[in-house]
Every structure is written in structure tokens, then in C-alpha cells.
Amino acid sequence: xxxxxxxxxxxxxxxxxxxxxxxxxxxxxxxxxxxxxxxxxxxxxxxxxxxxxxxxxxxxxxxxxxxxxxxxxxxxxxxxxxxxxxxxxxxxxxxxxxxxxxxxxxxxxxxxxxxxxxxxxxxxxxxxxxxxxxxxxxxxxxxxxxxxxxxxxxxxxxxxxxxxxxxxxxxxxxxxxxxxxxxxxxxxxxxxxxxxxxxxxxxxxxxxxxxxxxxxxxxxxxxxxxxxxxxxxxxxxxxxxxxxxxxxxxxxxxxxxxxxxxxxxxxxxxxxxxxxxxxxxxxxxx
Length: 286
Description:
Blueprint: H1 2-11, E1 15-20, E2 27-33, H2 35-58, H3 69-106, H4 114-123, H5 131-165, E3 175-178, E4 189-192, E5 198-200, E6 205-213, E7 217-223, E8 228-238, E9 245-246, E10 251-255, E11 266-273, E12 276-278
Antiparallel strand pairs: 1-2, 3-4, 4-11, 5-10, 6-7, 6-9, 7-8, 8-10, 8-11, 11-12
């Protein structure tokens, strides 16, 4: 009991802090403090210092110096993209060597396959090739060339079939008086027709232009599937407006002689594919 009482009395002890003048030893200022109060003051001071430091880091330029999670994610993405770029570069180099080898074989170059052979050896852990292996390699290269030629031929034939299957309706009854000639700048065909004859849509689509110009008069354009665009010029009147949906054989204009670049009643008809003018007569069914 005596020990516990002594400890309680010790907790209630006060300490006095005194400031003296160094020269005169005169007391300038003094205050009393309990040990618990002293620890509380230190705790409050520590919290204030920490909060001040946090606010400074959050709302000052020093914030940019702190590492962030986003920076780590971005760094990982950069590393991943770098690996992909390296892989693509390696694949492109191998492809170039491969095509160079094919070119050498097709041109009967005696140094054929040197570069591509080096790549093949590197990818197969530098296995030494004897005369038999060289012959097998040449045979393999010939097989690859045959497969490439066959695949290319099939692609060309398929493209040709798709183009031939894309047939357009004759836009007007009449006689072709001027044919397609891209070299001279005539990017369509001229069809002479009777005055008042209706101009028909050659294929289903959407009207994307219906206007008048001083050179070509009343003009109407239709957007079709597969990036085809049909253009009808020198009309006397337009029957459709921009945004209208049209079907094959539907009247869209009346043939005429409008515009400066005309010398009689006719239709100037153009057909464009993928932004390039093509000969309409190769697509129109009679």
C-alpha cells in the first residue's frame, strides 16, 4: 500500500521550468508542468508536424516527386510495349530475309537463301546443315513458293468473282456516245437519251449529294455497299434529296442538258470504287 501511494504521489509531482538571464541570473519566465502534460504536448506537436508535412507534400510541387501506383502501372505497360516492338522488329527482319530469299530463287541468283538460311540456322540452335539438308531446304522453299503462288491466285480469283458479282442496273435507256477514259480525264460514260427520260438508280443505296453546279448542272450521288458510289450529272431535275434511300431501278432524276460541260441531252454517269473511278460498262448489265 505504501508503495502504491508513493507512485501516485510521484505522478502528481510537478516540475518547474525556469528561464534565467545568463548575465544577471535573474528569473525571466517560469512555468510548472506535469509529466503527463509534457507527454501530451509532445504528442500534439508531433501530430501537427506530421499533418503539416502531409499537406505540404499534397499541395505543393513536391507532390510530383512522390512515387505513385499509376507510375508503376505505366512503367509496366511501357516495358510490355517495348517487348512487343522488339518482337515485331524481329518478325519483320525474318520476313524481309524470307522474301529476299524467294526473290533470289526466282531470279536464279547463285547466292540464294544465304540470308534466310542464316536465320533458319539461328532459330534451330545453329544446327549444321549438310548437302542433304540443303537439298531439303531448297525443296521446302520451292513448296513455300508454290503455296504462296496458289494462295495469291485464289485471292485474285476470289476478288475477280466478287467484282463480277457486283452488277449495276443500266441508269437510262440510250446509246453510249463517249466511253470511260481516265487518261483524258473522262471519268465516266455519256449516254444520249430522249428528253424527259427518267434516270434510274443503278443499285440500292443512300443519296449523299443532290445539288447543282455551273459545270455539271444538276448532280446526284448515291452511296452503295462495298464503297461504291454512283454519280449522275447534267440532269434537268432531281427527284431525290440527301438522305433518301433508293432501290435498284427507282427514278432519281430526269435526263437533261444542264451545266456548261454539255452539248446535248444526255447523262454523264460515273462509278467510283474505294475512291477510284472505274469503267461503268464493266459493271452494268445490259
